[in-house]
Design brief:
This protein has about 220 residues and is mostly helical. The chain folds into 3 domains: about 1-45; about 45-145, Receptor-associated Protein; about 150-220. The chain is built from 10 helices and no strands. The chain has helices at about 1-15, 20-65, 70-80, 85-95, 100-110, 115-130, 135-160, 160-185, 190-195, 195-220. The longest helix is centred in the N-terminal third of the chain and has 45 residues, at about 20-65. The relative contact order is 0.10.
Length: about 220
């Protein structure tokens, strides 16, 4: 919605000031900025997700060795890589400040957009309230995580063509608009100087943004 609002705002400003360059900037800047930010966040979350099963194996092993849950987490962090290490260190810091461990894990689950961490939070809550064999439960959680990761990889491969098509179909009309602006801007003057042109331009932007989100909804399958 932030992206759509930015594009619509740029469209209104472009019509008011009759600036096609402003429209192109308004289309490109939000798209590029969003892509850069989302790429960095996704990269960090993906690395965290891939590191989670192996680190939970270490956690389960430390529990079997007789460590407490917090102590086992400290053992796990000794061999963990970034970004997993810093994220779980924040959990332990919250726990030292008096935040229940399961609540701190739930916060991290939302921060990393990871439902698997939510399962770990539930396990820690059950361990705190009822006890039980936490290591065995963690083993089952790890098996579920690895199964879901394999399914996600399959879905990613099957939807790769659709994701590429989303970027291409969105870029083509913007590229053509920029091409006509460079070749002969006079061709585009009716877009600014007539009511029909303004309506057509608004319709074009709405269809462009709508198509982007429609394809996104189709190809991004949650597992």
């Amino acid at each position: 919605w932030t992206l759509a609002a930015a594009i619509i705002t740029s469209l209104v400003v472009a019509i008011m000031f009759q600036s096609l360059a402003g429209l192109l900037a308004g289309l490109f800047v939000p798209l590029v900025t969003r892509m850069i930010v989302k790429s960095r966040v996704s990269k960090k979350r993906k690395a965290f997700r891939e590191q989670l099963p192996d680190n939970l194996d270490v956690l389960a092993g430390a529990l079997r060795a007789g460590h407490s849950l917090v102590g086992a987490m400290n053992v796990m962090l000794e061999s963990a890589d970034e970004p997993f290490k810093s994220e779980f260190r924040r959990v332990l810091q919250d726990e030292q400040l008096g935040v229940p461990l399961d609540d701190a894990l739930m916060v991290m689950s939302r921060r990393m957009d990871n439902l698997d961490v939510e399962q770990v939070a539930i396990v820690t809550r059950l361990q705190r309230e009822a006890g039980g064999n936490t290591a065995e439960v963690l083993d089952r959680v790890v098996d579920n995580i690895r199964g879901r990761m394999e399914l996600q990889r399959l879905v990613t491969v099957l939807t790769a063509q659709g994701r590429i098509a989303r970027y291409i179909l969105t870029a083509i009309p913007i590229f053509l608009l920029g091409f006509f602006l460079l070749v002969n801007p006079v061709w585009l003057e009716p877009l600014w100087q007539t009511t029909v042109g303004n309506i057509a331009m608004v319709f074009w932007v709405v269809m462009l943004v709508g198509g982007w989100f429609a394809i996104k909804k189709i190809v991004e399958i949650e597992v």
